[in-house]
Specification:
The strands form two sheets. The protein has a six-stranded mixed β-sheet with strand order 3-2-1-4-6-5, sandwiched between helices. The longest helix has 26 residues. The radius of gyration is 27 Å and the shape is globular. Strand 7 and strand 8 form a beta hairpin. It contains 25 helices and eight strands. Helix 18 crosses helix 22.
């Protein structure tokens, strides 16, 4: 019976994947020629793929640009139900949708195209990050790209609150899939775990000033318009940008980027710099650097927000019951700085450097910081750290996210597209940093005869002994041959590419995106000077949340009893940790002990 059920699930999964890819199955006919179709796609034989699909599936091929936008699986497919109540700390793990192997094979096939040449891939998404594009983004799009917390009340129990948030979040996930399907091309990665978004909601609600940490090597990548819009327009709170890792960029570039962000983008109240390395502050001119500059700028933007009347004064009334906050720090009159941003931009390292010691754990893995935590900086300021969240972006391709360390290296299925971006933006040519010798035409032809397409040659203008242009595949081939990386009698290009990419992510290969030399002062305000109620989260039309299908026991009495006892953790749905380590043996011992206690109580009741 188990075997039959397993076969049925596998067939259902295959059929579902075929439907997602547009391979509609004819009624009453089996899908035949699947191996031939896969081989044709993998080898790039489009004509064979079309004939195979038309002959065996009795249907027409869809546009690959539209089909590439469909993820291989979603969070529900992995068995993580967004409506299942889970402990906050145990479930705060970054979750991305997977990529189809067809997308990966397509990108590997174009890895032999020389750097700088046009890539003939209809699903390729070009990077379109610019100050003008950021400022001109319609606020309806920026509002759509971030899940918004549905309206809630203190009368809600933890179960009902979870139900409303999960229902709204699932609607947002469906909306994002539709949005990327309409755009087409390879889909970017973004956070699909509700628990991680919940941590961001709480930090933004309780803070007085939102502090967004960005990597100075590529500031626009780590500055999501959706987050800027949500903080500045919806919450009406000041937003302070911190250019971190200043030691990795020239000083004049950092100063120019600070000027561009401060005057070229809407919603940015101030910009400061930071680096854990010792820097000459005189080289950065007007850009404030360090702990004192960060605190000073935070108090300045907070005072200006109070003078304008934009600041949300309901922070304590809304968030003081949510736990995990140092109420003593708040009651002392300190302003709360909410530290937000992408993973691996250096938020935890910045916190440790500010506090003068290790107070938070640091690891080069997205989602390592699980939950928010509050720290006291001085008598006037406290800090609230939060997990990094990857936002959905229409103008950012996946390879840029890989280089920006938004996607873990363990989840990278092909390094060649990311290496192409690094080769285009490295300060020193990558082959010179790695000490690689230029390849000749004879070597490329010999590699082609052995089955390795290292460089695509569209013409025959190259001489036999003349140096050839570099491609990501040729770079990996040369690196593998010089390092002795072999597989099946040929160079192990995948292993070589992953090793080079690991060096890039470790900071051993310097790269940076230079700031624009000229920029137009931003006149767009996204309605910042309008009525704060116009963008309020209390608009029920933003969330079609229905509580009619929610069924539970009497909620209010139990919830208010927990509140009266001070059990804030239980009120907001986080399970308390029980005794023992949680292993199988520990659970057995605890179960045996509870059984013995129950039998003892039963005996006492009989004797009494």
């Amino acid at each position: 019976l188990k075997c039959w059920l397993l076969q049925g699930l596998l067939l259902a999964g295959c059929h579902r994947g075929a439907l997602q890819r547009g391979m509609v199955r004819s009624k009453g006919k089996a899908i035949k020629g699947g191996a031939a179709l896969a081989k044709a796609i993998k080898t790039g034989n489009v004509r064979a793929a079309q004939s195979s699909s038309s002959r065996e599936l009795n249907t027409t091929c869809l546009d690959f640009k539209a089909a590439a936008a469909v993820s291989e699986f979603t969070i529900e497919d992995r068995g993580v139900d967004v409506k299942k109540k889970a402990p906050t700390k145990a479930a705060c793990k970054t979750v991305f949708a997977g990529e189809s192997w067809i997308n990966v094979e397509h990108r590997i096939r174009v890895a032999a195209v020389p750097v700088g040449a046009q890539i003939k891939d209809e699903a390729f998404v070009a990077e379109a990050l610019s100050l003008a594009g950021f400022a001109s983004m319609p606020k309806s799009v920026a509002r759509r790209l971030m899940p918004r917390r549905p309206p809630w009340s203190f009368d809600f129990s933890s179960g009902r609150l979870h139900h409303r948030e999960a229902q709204a979040f699932k609607q947002w996930l469906d909306d994002m899939r539709e949005l990327f399907a309409d755009r087409g091309g390879y889909p970017p990665a973004f956070e699909q775990n509700l628990q991680v978004w919940r941590q961001l909601w709480r930090v933004l609600e309780r803070c007085d000033v939102a502090v967004m940490v960005v990597d100075a090597r590529h500031p626009l990548l780590h500055l999501p318009p959706a987050l800027v819009y949500h903080v500045a327009c919806t919450l009406k709170k000041p937003l302070l940008v911190v250019l971190n890792k200043l030691d990795t960029v020239p000083a004049q570039d950092a100063v120019q980027w600070a000027e561009c962000l401060r005057n070229g983008l809407p919603g940015i109240a101030g910009v400061t710099g930071y680096s854990k390395e010792d820097l000459r502050h005189e080289a950065f001119g007007p850009l404030g650097i360090g702990r004192s500059a960060l605190i000073k700028e935070a108090h300045r933007v907070h005072s200006e927000a109070l003078e304008r009347g934009d600041h949300d004064s309901t922070r304590l009334a809304k968030t003081e019951v949510e736990g995990d906050v140092d109420t003593g720090a708040v009651e002392a009159g300190r302003i709360m700085l909410g530290l937000v941003g992408h993973p691996n931009v250096g938020k935890s390292s910045l916190v440790n450097h500010i506090m003068g010691g290790k107070v938070v754990s640091v690891k080069a893995t997205p989602g390592h910081t699980k939950t928010l935590q509050t720290l006291v900086l001085d008598e006037r300021t406290c800090l609230c750290d939060s997990p990094g969240v990857v936002f959905p972006r229409l103008e950012v391709p996946r390879e840029v996210q890989i280089v920006g360390m938004l996607i873990p290296l363990a989840q990278v299925r092909e390094p060649f597209s990311a290496l192409r971006w690094v080769m285009e933006h490295a300060r020193t040519p990558l082959h010179e940093l790695l000490g690689l010798k230029p390849a000749t035409l004879q070597q490329v032809l010999e590699l082609r005869d052995s089955g390795v397409e290292a460089l695509t040659l569209d013409d025959d203008t190259f001489e036999e002994d003349s140096p050839l242009p570099w491609s990501p595949m040729l770079l990996c081939v040369q690196f593998a041959m010089q390092r002795g990386m072999a597989k099946s009698g040929g160079p192990d290009t995948l292993r070589a590419g992953m090793e080079i990419l690991e060096r890039v992510l470790d900071g051993r290969v310097p790269y940076s995106v230079p700031p624009p030399t000229e920029f137009k002062r931003c006149d767009t305000d996204w309605g910042l000077r309008g009525n704060p109620q116009d963008e309020s989260d209390g608009d029920e039309s933003d969330y079609q949340v229905d509580d009619n299908d929610y069924q539970s026991e009497e909620e209010n009495a139990e919830a208010r009893a927990k509140m009266d006892k001070g059990d804030l953790v239980g009120f907001f749905g986080e399970d308390r940790l029980g005794p023992g380590s949680g292993s199988i043996q520990s659970r057995r011992r605890q179960g045996k002990k509870m059984k013995q206690l129950a039998e003892a109580e039963k005996d006492e009741a009989v004797l009494g």
